[in-house]
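The records we work with from here on pair a chain with its fold. Taken together, the tokens spell out the fold as the letters spell out the chain. To see the layout at work, look at the sequence and tokens printed below.
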Amino acid sequence: MKKNIAKVSVLPAIGALIFLSFSSKKEVINEDNYFADNTAQYSTVSIDKLSLAANGHVVYPVLRKNYIGFKEAVGFKESGGDYKTINQFGYLGKYQFGKGTLHLIGIYNMKEFLNNPALQEAAFYANASRNKWILRREIKNYVGKEINGVEITESGILAAAHLAGPGSVKKYLRSGGVHGFSDAFGTSIRYYLNRFKGYNTSFVKPNRKAKAVAQETTV
């Protein structure tokens, strides 16, 4: 019997997502629905891309500094928010998961994963939950400190673990930033620590055995 499984519902968007003043399109979400209880029930922004072209400019959404803002910012950086993308290295979906990581959180059918946005959202939460448990000592010992000119925050640590894996983040933090990591595109742990710092990720509960289960499959 699996316990404490991350549960996800992808709900209709009902609040307001504020874009910069020159944006030509608005999307609606209501973040008040996301913290009703201790389960991982949250909505996702129902747009293919979180950047829009307006008068020759790229327009980025303004997201709150909470869990929803955190996951949407990571999803935009990873894939532009595209659930069905596969990059040249075989990483899949909105959050660009590797198959090995998906296996760790209970996902083995890659076709189903790509065609199920709710499962991808569940996977992001489950992976963050698992990483938060693995990195619980690092979160306790390093949050608030500065390494290589970057303030260390919990959200930055979780984002860096999504990029590089929790083991690489441990080495980076414990070495004072000497032992770094960059992915195939040259993106570093330091960059993710800085780009995704300062979000409130207390919604993510540490769980060593977190698995991804999507309750709903519509967006």
